[in-house]
Amino acid sequence: MTLSVVMYLAVSGVVAPQIADSSPMGSKVWGVIAWVELVLGPAMILTSLRFLRLRRWSRIPLMAFGSILVLGMLAFGVFWVIRLPGFFREMRSGPPLDATGSVVITVFQVVMTVGGIAIALAFAAGFGILTKRLRAPEVRNSVTVDRF
């Protein structure tokens, strides 16, 4: 998580302006994602540690974090499908490609698209299952300690 925060801050131009993403989305969104991760990351770690110590209050924030992660992964999948064709259009706008190069790029685009969607769905499903299990009566009844 720390490395992704550094990457987001670099791409947003906060840390390294010379490699900042010049697109309107890049300059606004990457910095926000980094700061959200800086706040939510330690909170998720603390909450998870307290859940392992059976703290009753920790279940609800973990369900909220799980829901955020499910939505984030689904948003990533949509973003991936929308932005990836533009990336490959830029690749093809360079020097003309021979037939083999064109086929390689097309196959790579299909693999990247299908792989990105599969990863997004797998992570969203995993976080969704974990979030659903936190609502189960056996989990609810096992977290019994009321103090911090």
Question: Could you write a compact summary of the structure shown?
Answer:
This protein has 148 residues and is mostly helical.
Note the run of SSEs as H and E.
HHHHH
Shape: elongated
- Helix proportion: over 70%
Largest sheet: none
Number of helices: 5
Poorly predicted spans: none
Approximate strand percentage: under 5%
Structure class: mainly alpha
Tally of domains: 2
Termini distance?
25 Å
Mean of residue pLDDT values:
80
Rg on CA atoms, Å: 20 Å
Instruction: List how many beta strands DSSP finds.
Output: 0
Describe this structure as you would to a colleague:
The structure is a single chain. The protein is an all-alpha fold and 148 residues long. The chain has two domains: 1-52, no CATH class; 54-148. The protein is built from five helices and no strands. Helix 2 packs antiparallel against helix 3 (59-92). The model has no long low-confidence stretch (mean pLDDT 80).
Helices and strands, with pairings:
Elements: H1 2-12, H2 24-52, H3 59-92, H4 99-134, H5 137-142
Question: Which properties best describe this structure?
Answer:
mainly alpha
